[in-house]
Amino acid sequence: MIDLSMLENFSLLVPSKNCKSWKGYILLNAYSVYIEISCPNIPLLDNLKIRIPELETSNFHQFDLKETVEIVKQKTHSLSEFLKELILILIKVWKQDTFSNLSNFSNAHDDERFHSVIQEVNLYGQYVHQIEENLKHVTFNVLDMCSHSHFIKIFIPDEYPKIKKHPLCFETVVPTVSLNLFLKMNTISNLFEMFKNVVYELRSFWNVHHEIISTCNTIGSYTFKDVNYRIPIDIHVCVEVEVDPLNPLNCPKFHLHGCPAAIEKFKKRLNEINPILVWSTNNSFKENILNMFEVSTLPLQYKEEKPEHYVASQNDLDCCCICYDQLDKAIKNSTKSCVNEKCDALYHMSCICEWLLNSGSTPMFDHLQGKCPQCEEDMLVALENFDLIKA
C-alpha cells in the first residue's frame, strides 16, 4: 500500500513496488542529500534502516546515524513523521563545525538538476528498478501482460535538463524495428513513455517469443531482441525462422541449414506449397512448423554436418546458400564467399547484405560485418555498390 504522506512530503524519494524501500534525495535547507531507506515492516518502523553514503565517507566523530535512527523511531509512528524528525536533526548537525568537511559535497551538486530529474523520474516511481547514486542513470522495469520483465537503462547527461537538444542514450533489449523509435527522444519522460508503449504494442510478439523457445527445441539462447530462431526439423537439418515482431502471428520467413542432400526434400516442400496458406493462426507455432515441413516431431538434438562429411555437387556450388537460386559468377562483385575453408558457402551479394542488415549490422566505412549464415564465421562484406542491397 502506497504511503500518500510520503509521496506528498518527499517528492524526491522514489519507492519500490511494495513501498518497503525508498531511494532518492532529502533536502537539508540548501543541500540535497542522497538517502536509502529500508522499512520491511512498513507501516511499523521496527527493523528500519537508513543509509546516507555521504555520512559514511566523511569524518563525523560526534554523530552516530544508527543511534539517531533508533532514538527517532521510538518517538514517531510513521515513516513520514520519522523522516521529518530526522531531517531536523540533520539540519542542526549540518551547521556544526564538524560538518565543515562536507561543504564541498553538497555544493558540488546542482540542486536544480537533482530536483528536476528526481521529479521527472518520480512520475514513474512504480516502474523504477534502480537509480544511480549521482543520477548518472536510472533503470525502469515494465511488465508485459504475461509478467515478462523488460528493462530500459536511461543515461542522464550532466547538463540535463537545461539542454535537451540531443537524444538521450539508453540500453534496452527490444527488436531493432522498435528500437529505432527511441532514437530521437530527448527527455526521460518521452523515452520511458515510448518504451512502455513498445512493450505493450509487442505483447503478441513476447508471447510468440516465449512459445518458440519453450516448445520448439531451439538451438542456442535468445533474448527479447531476437526475431530469428533456429529450430531442428531433422537430425541434420534446422530451419531458421524469422518472425515479424509487428505481425508475429503471420507466417514467418524460412531459411534452411544443413548439408544439401538432407535439405533437398524440405526445399522441395517449400517450393510445392504456399507457406502463407499452410500457416494457420489457429495452430500453435510448433504445430505450424510440423505441418509446414511434414514432420511428426521436432528432434531433441541437432547434429550439424561438417562440410568435409559430404561432397557438394556442382549445382550446390553454384547456388546461393540463402535463397538457393543459381549464382552468376561472371558478374563482378555479385557474389560473396565465406572465408572459412571448411564452409566456403556462396551468396548473392544482395542476399548476404540483406541477411546482415536484418541481423542488426549497420554499414560502417562502406562495409557490413556479421556472421556467415552457414557456419557463423565472422564476415566482412565490402559494399562497393550500395544498390546491391536494394536488388
Write the layout of secondary structure elements.
Elements: H1 4-9, E1 13-15, E2 21-28, E3 31-38, E4 49-51, H2 53-56, H3 65-75, H4 79-95, H5 103-108, H6 111-122, E5 128-131, E6 137-143, E7 149-155, E8 170-172, H7 176-179, H8 188-201, H9 203-215, E9 228-234, E10 237-242, E11 253-258, H10 260-272, H11 275-278, H12 285-293, H13 314-317, E12 335-337, E13 346-348, H14 349-358, E14 367-371, E15 378-382, H15 387-390
Antiparallel strand pairs: 1-2, 2-3, 3-4, 5-6, 6-7, 7-8, 9-10, 10-11, 12-13, 14-15
State the low-pLDDT regions, or none.
97-109, 307-316
Number of β-strand runs: 15
Strand % is 15-25%
Major β-sheet, in short?
4 strands, antiparallel
Alpha carbon gap, first and last residue: 59 Å
Helix content: 25-40%
**Which sequence of SSEs, written as H and E, runs from N to C?**
HEEEEHHHHHEEEEHHHEEEHHHHEEHEEH
Strand order of the largest sheet: 1-2-3-4
Our count of helices gives 15
Radius of gyration: 29 Å
3D shape: elongated
> Class by helix and strand content?
alpha+beta
Mean pLDDT: 81
How would you sum up this structure in a few lines?
The chain is α+β, with helices and mostly antiparallel strands and 391 residues long. The chain is built from 15 helices and 15 strands.
Detailed description of the structure:
This protein has 391 residues and is of the alpha+beta class. The chain is 34% helix and 20% strand. It has 15 helices and 15 strands. About 6% of the residues have low confidence.
